């Protein structure tokens, strides 16, 4: 078998066999296939696509290129939730304790953020003392005793994906839906969950800019998951406005805590309840998604989800006092209100630009080695559809460097558009793919 022939076959629109895909994945991961040939095949795939069978084979082989986590030591049906990324997405912090309270184990491997704001790991490390570098024994023990643990990705999960993604990033092949689907699902399958719920975002702050492209990606990932024997659901959610009101690590933890206290932003909670309901339903704990939502709402009203979050924080070395008193978080010392420059209505927000404004303040990373400032970020006070008067605060910045405030403010102004007539707020849930 020759790599040349595999490239030529896909260039002409042919369907690759399992053996051909294995030859490529094994050869490139092992170093016998050079970058220039791998790049050629990736471009051929980006142009001519892959069908579901091809994409499933590619995903499984990428997953098996490294460690396949064995979660059999954890009691019960393991569920996992994955987001395709967004601005202000703190749903894991809210969902994990809610679902764990219902007796469903959440054993989650998460990553750090590169871009707008931190990833789930960075947000959790904004809690004083919180440790995400857990041993395997501690990780499993925490899940079995309190129902939830979140750790950094220390395992060698899907190394083929890591190597291929680095190549895609420099060859204009990142946007290929089969390659995106294989990248995401290879890591999810390697992480070992029985049930996978995918939050596929669409809009200005998401990788998929349209609902149709998000739906196509969701359908492909659900098919891969189900073909691999994992019960898989996808929820297509809006990412035009930032999700919730907080963008920035400690600020997002505070918003998550407020949500667990029953004071969550309505649109944020719509996404939270939808995702969590499919996790509960998929795990077989509820007869319907509607029943699952009622059970989840009770975890909030009873205070059990908040209590479970505090237990989770303490079990991973964090100071659980901040859960009950969020004023203990050390936020940016420079607090600046950004005023509206005209009367009218917010007609749109580019969530990605809000994310970049928070990045300027120090809430995210441009390079992997950058150090995040956990206390900085943005509170979005006005969102699409809201009326606003000139001089009224549209957002509040938290910073520690006065030189960064001006640049972040200018970026934030560029994120907003206004109109004289009312504009409807975007819907939060576009579709469910089962």
Spell the H/E element sequence.
Answer: HHHHEHEHHEHHEHEEHHHHHEEHEEEHEE
**The CATH topology of the largest domain, please?**
Pyrimidine Nucleoside Phosphorylase, Chain A, domain 2
The CATH homologous superfamily name of the largest domain equals Nucleoside phosphorylase/phosphoribosyltransferase catalytic domain
Contiguous uncertain segments of 5+ residues: none
Q: Helix content range of the residues, please?
A: 40-55%
The main pleated sheet reads as: 4 strands, mixed
Overall pLDDT metric: 93
Please count the helical segments.
17
The tally of structural domains comes to 3
Distance between the termini: 38 Å
Strand order of the largest sheet: 1-4-5-13
The counted number of beta strands is 13
What structural class results from the helix and strand content? alpha/beta
For the record, the CATH class of the largest domain is Alpha Beta
CATH architecture descriptor of the largest domain = 3-Layer(aba) Sandwich
Strand percent estimate: 15-25%
Report the radius of gyration as a whole number of Å.
Answer: 22 Å
């Amino acid at each position: 078998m020759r790599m040349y022939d595999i490239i030529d076959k896909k260039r002409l629109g042919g369907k690759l066999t399992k053996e051909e895909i294995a030859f490529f994945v094994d050869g490139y991961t092992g170093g016998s296939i050079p970058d220039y040939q791998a790049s050629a095949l990736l471009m051929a795939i980006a142009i001519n696509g892959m069908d579901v069978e091809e994409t499933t084979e590619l995903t499984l082989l990428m997953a098996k290129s490294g460690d396949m986590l064995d979660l059999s030591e954890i009691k019960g049906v393991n569920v996992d939730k994955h987001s395709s990324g967004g601005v202000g997405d703190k749903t894991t912090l809210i969902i994990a304790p809610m679902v764990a309270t219902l007796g469903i184990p959440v054993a989650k491997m998460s990553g750090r953020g590169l871009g707008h704001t931190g990833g789930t790991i960075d947000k959790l490390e904004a809690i004083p003392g919180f440790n995400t570098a857990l041993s395997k024994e501690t990780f499993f023990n925490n899940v079995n005793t309190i129902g939830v643990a979140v750790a950094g990705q220390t395992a060698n999960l899907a190394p083929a994906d890591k190597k291929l993604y680095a190549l895609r990033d420099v060859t204009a092949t990142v946007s290929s839906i089969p390659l995106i689907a294989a990248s995401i699902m290879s890591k999810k399958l390697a992480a070992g969950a029985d049930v996978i719920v995918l939050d596929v975002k669409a809009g200005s702050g998401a990788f998929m800019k349209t609902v149709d492209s998000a739906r196509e990606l969701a359908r492909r990932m659900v098919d891969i998951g189900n073909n691999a024997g994992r019960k898989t659901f996808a929820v297509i959610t809006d990412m035009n406005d930032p999700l919730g009101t907080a963008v920035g690590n400690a600020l997002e933890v505070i918003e998550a805590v407020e949500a667990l206290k029953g004071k969550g932003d309505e649109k944020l909670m719509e996404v939270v309840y939808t995702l969590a309901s499919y996790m509960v339903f998929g795990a077989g704990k509820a007869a319907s998604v509607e029943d699952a939502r009622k059970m989840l709402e009770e975890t909030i009203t009873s205070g059990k989800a908040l209590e479970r979050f505090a237990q989770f924080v303490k079990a991973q070395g964090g100071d659980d006092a901040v859960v009950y008193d969020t004023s203990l978080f050390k936020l940016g010392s420079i607090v600046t209100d950004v005023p509206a420059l005209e009367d009218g209505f917010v007609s749109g927000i580019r969530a990605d630009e809000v994310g970049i404004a928070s990045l300027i303040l120090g809430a995210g990373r441009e390079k992997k080695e950058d150090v995040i400032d956990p206390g900085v970020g943005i509170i979005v006070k006005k969102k699409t559809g809201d009326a606003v008067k000139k001089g009224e605060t549209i957002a509040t910045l938290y910073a520690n460097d006065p030189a960064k405030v001006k640049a972040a403010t200018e970026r934030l102004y560029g994120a907003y558009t206004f109109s004289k007539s009312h504009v409807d707020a975007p819907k939060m849930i576009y579709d469910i793919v089962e």
